[in-house]
Amino acid sequence: MESNEMDRDVAAAQLAALDADRAALADRVLQPWWYDVLLGLLLFGFLASYAFDSLWVTFPALLVFCAALGVLVAAYKRISGVWASPSGRVMVPWGVLVLVVLVPAFVLAEGFDQHWVMVPAGAVLGIAVAVLSRLWGRAWVAELRGQQ
């Protein structure tokens, strides 16, 4: 009977430690505001580069975009100590938004030689990724705190 009491006490202490760890994680996983801003600007810059209709502009923009994303990921990992991949629940709405914005933009740009439409398309998606990144970060914090 005594061992059951000790097991319960040990289990309760371990659960309390896990709750404390989860709360500590929630305190540090929300990315800084500049992370969302840079993410949006990077996406905007890359998509807007299509307006030049030149691989000499778009390819370097792609390289800068990928390198800067790598730097953002590394900075986030250094700041928070973790990295999480978004779930399908997060990626499906983002994918739908990307399709709704980019398909008509690419049709106009490539099919009708209206390359300027990539600038507003980039602006829409850049703002959207910045706002959604912030919302998803806050939702993760709420989930870790058990508020969701």
Outline the secondary-structure elements:
Elements: H1 2-29, H2 33-48, H3 55-80, H4 88-111, H5 118-144
Helix pairs in contact: 1-5, 2-3, 2-5, 4-5
Descriptive notes:
The chain has 148 residues and is mainly alpha-helical. It is built from five helices and no strands. Helix 4 (88-111) packs antiparallel against helix 5. The longest helix is centred in the N-terminal third of the chain and has 28 residues, at 2-29. The two termini are 38 Å apart. The model has no long low-confidence stretch (mean pLDDT 90).
Which tags fit this structure?
148 residues, mainly alpha, 5 helices, single chain
Question: What is this structure, in a nutshell?
Answer:
With 148 residues, this protein is mainly α. The chain is built from 5 helices and no strands. The chain is elongated, with a radius of gyration of 22 Å.
